[in-house]
Amino acid sequence: MKTKQLLKQIAITFSLLIASLFTANANNVVITGTSVAGSNVTFNISWDNSWNTNLAPNNWDAVWVFVKYQDCATRLWAHAGLSTVGADHTTSAPLQVDPVTDGKGVFIRRSAVGGGNIASTSVTLKMTIPAGTYNYKVCGIEMVNVPQGDFELGDGAAVSRYNSILVNATSQSAGISAAVLGGASVTVPSTFPVGYNAVYCMKYEVTQEQYVDFLNSLTYTQQAARTLNDPISAAGTYALNPAYYYRNGIRISVPGNNSALPAVYACDATSGIENNADDGQNVPLNSISWGDLTAYLDWSALRPMTELEYEKICRGPMPRLASEYPWGSINLTYVHSAMAGLINDLTASESYSPVTNGMCTYGVGVATTTYGPTRAGMYATGSSGRESAGATYYGVMEMGGNVRERTVTTGNATGVLFTGNTGDGTLATNGDPNQTSWPSPVTAAGSGHRGGNWVGVAAELQISNRAGAATTDAARVYVYGGRGVR
Known about the structure:
Largest sheet: 6 strands, antiparallel
Radius of gyration: 21 Å
Order of helices and strands: EEEEEEEEEEEEHHEHHEEHEHEEEEHEE
Distance between the termini: 25 Å
Structural class: mainly beta
Number of domains: 3
Mean pLDDT: 93
Low-confidence stretches: 1-26
Number of helices: 7
């Protein structure tokens, strides 16, 4: 989808003087008509295929909304605090606004049981920021609620698995010993997120358009840390690869200047007119490092998921099935980005025909630069079932295939130091995430990966396969992407 950034200056009488009219497209989320009056920011939000169900899986989808503001004097962007009092935020049916305790954003979701598209609805949020003259961006990320509850771990199908155990409230309150957990893991303390507690998970992997919005709010120095090629490089230089490789079209639109003025980035998979309809905005981000992913998550006030949470999000409360894939069966249909059935390449409507069960982007086998991940959520429609959509029990998309899910491992002592603290919306001046307990953005020690990728073999896609769970890799690799939770 095309992201439009149309700045509009609005004069008002006190504290906040300039607002940006910002249209944000993240998969099916559209945020338009942003205006600011006093400490309130108002906008319209819409998205497709929303739900709130009181039947299994007894959950809902939501949009994680957060606000960035730019000081007009220094041109630096910051993360806006939002009120933690629900009554300070307003909207109308069919939506409600759920604040969070740290004030880093809000969840906007259906207020009653129902399903279908959310038409454009006005929302007003109360900010807690100092008086000043600012520009604004309202950002939205589609999320899925994963309720608190027991789940089964492992599947007993092969080596490189956890033991087949039940994770419950005691597992979280007391931790899980290495002997009980198995799978060459260390003892997990009670401070480590084992998957029992409720969490929101990104519905899709981070997309290229989302990473462009991230880059365009950073300083020059931060951009240099979060891209392969220097921000001062010529217009048209690709950000994360030497050229247009692996369907990653993020490139420099306007070069930065003298380590001071940051570059402007855009999506341009079909080199020519930037941010055109076929420029890959909704293709999952790849060719990133652990540091790149966690910087994005910190900036978004999210956090990495653990590998136990990965299994919970995929399997839900359902009984384990040997060698099952994230869509709950052993059916698997091979798809790749250059197959004849792929239509509307690189657009927001990129899809595959014919539709069958277990469709997944995987198995190319060689890292040919012309191949890459396919559109986020490509196999899901308004009428698709879990298996044909390739969805997890709770409705999270592409937890198998496309790009690797970067997770915090239980395979070593460094990984289990993670306490599940969320990002604060602010990066260190050098562009790194600044969160304690997270695996290092420099060494990636304590991280690993799950879920396979567009190059790898079928076995890697299985929910309980831990072959790469403790694989430490700090480099930018064409199969690495990921998503966050909160």
